[in-house]
Automatic annotation (TrEMBL):
It catalyses: D-glucose 6-phosphate + NADP(+) = 6-phospho-D-glucono-1,5-lactone + NADPH + H(+). NADP(+) binds at residues 17-24, 51, 150. One of its GO terms (cellular component) is cytosol. This is Glucose-6-phosphate 1-dehydrogenase. It is an enzyme of class 1 (oxidoreductase). Residues 191-482 form the Glucose-6-phosphate dehydrogenase C-terminal domain. One of its GO terms (biological process) is pentose-phosphate shunt, oxidative branch. Gene3D superfamilies: Dihydrodipicolinate Reductase, domain 2 (3.30.360.10), NAD(P)-binding Rossmann-like Domain (3.40.50.720). Substrate binds at residues 180, 184, 218, 237, 333. It comes from Palleronia pontilimi. The active site is at 242 (proton acceptor).
Amino acid sequence: MVSRVIPVDPFDLVIFGGTGDLARRKILPGLYRRFIAGQMPEDARVIGAARSELDDEGYRKDVRDALKEFVSKRALSEENIAAFLSRLHYVSIDAKGEGGWKKLAQTMRDDDDVVRAFYFSVAPSLFGDLAERLHLHKIAGANSRIVVEKPFGRDLESAKALNATLAEHFDETQIYRIDHYLGKETVQNLMAVRFGNVLFEPLWNAQYVDHIQITVAETVGVGGRGGYYDKSGAMRDMVQNHLMQLLCLIAMEPPSRFEPDAVRDEKLKVIRALEPVEPGDIVRGQYEGKGKTPSYHDDVEDGESRTESFIAMKLHVSNWRWAGTPFYVRTGKRLKARQSEIAVVFKDAPHSIFGEAAGRHRNILTIRLQPNEGMTLGVTIKEPGPGGMRLVDVPLDMSFADALGPEGDEIPEAYERLVMDVVRGNQTLFMRGDEVEAAWAWTDPIIEGWTKRDERPFAYEPGTAGPEESAMLLHREDRRWREIKE
Ligand code: NDP
Ligand code: BG6
């Protein structure tokens, strides 16, 4: 397979928070990978901006260390690192004060052909200050773009306020709200599979689909992000954004084109069609400690915390396509394995001509987001050999790494694709303001519900599939979760 790399326009990308964890772990390594793929034009520049007092050389040294830590060894060469670092600059700036803004204005190139992009990789409390000062100092103009990290608010009210603040200085077409799940290769493949094949779409509805499962299981705990996480929990941190986006892509009607508003209009309709969730259809969990593994309470240093590190829910999308087909979603930390997948479980064949003794198997289409990105379709065939007709389920298995040749294992990471989309001016894989607000409008009453009921999450042992109660969500309906495999 020949990989096609389309160079982007020259750009000045300012990373506010350029010394922070996200910049060092994801954004800068992603830019480096795009650089070695040949996608960064000669005159593209990256400008780190944060309060730390550094000069260009000091910043380059810091980024060199980050690349060594977070880029695979085989992608690193001294020559490439040096060439990439030469594109890097640094301005010491305070989002809340006046220091550094004049220097930033002088550093930017005054050329209409150079795209100006500003990545807000700082605490959300600084988003408004940055937007205001970029405007005040005339650094951002009509052709500039801003990239806004999550969390985008913590409820509908704060999301609306943030949208309003950003809208004072930027048009919606200039605002790129990141949900990095939309940048994952397999997530985009979901759309290719649905809308690029004639095979699946006729069956993609309540008549043929029994139910859908979305699982995002992580092995990590909340680690160093306890302060943020304890105020969010799995619902705000993962469901309101990442799982919601996956659900939208699975459930939406075919957009007329793969274009920003066409796609986002369809996603918005799905979010608005989500029914409120009954308390009995929600299971929240919190990991216990085991051996040397700290408990959630230890991790967040609050023995009384009732924040969930696991959540499972049964959801309904109330429209003609999906009425009667439940969507089961779950996500959690410190589970058995890192496994993210979507399973579309089709209904039984309406009649078995082979008799019940031959056995019956359902077709299941599994889309693996990570690890081992790919898809499996379970198909029923005859068990080989004499002795009558016995049916078995065999997988038609496709791993992208195997199927797509030598580059298959070099699948671009979410952040590198998304940053390049910003430079290209393509908002298809970014959330629109109304989408984020609709997601909070659905999320808020659910959180208010369990807060009012003063519910404690169920405890679960680390290294499991979450609390036992989550299995009951499906067992009571004669269904079961797909196994989270170590
Ligand atoms: P960090 O705390 O690691 O980094 C914060 C950055 O902001 C630092 O570069 C810091 O540098 C800078 N900063 C802090 N205060 C100011 C200020 N007043 N003016 C200018 N710069 C300032 O945070 P993360 O990198 O982890 O997160 C950044 C954003 O990304 C947050 O919104 C977070 O929610 C989001 N995010 C992070 C993820 C992650 O895995 N880390 C995942 C998903 C989203 P200095 O102190 O030198 O000013
Ligand atoms: C982030 C969440 O948005 O996504 C984290 O804040 C979570 O809590 C992470 O660990 C998961 O992303 P990925 O790409 O590792 O599945």
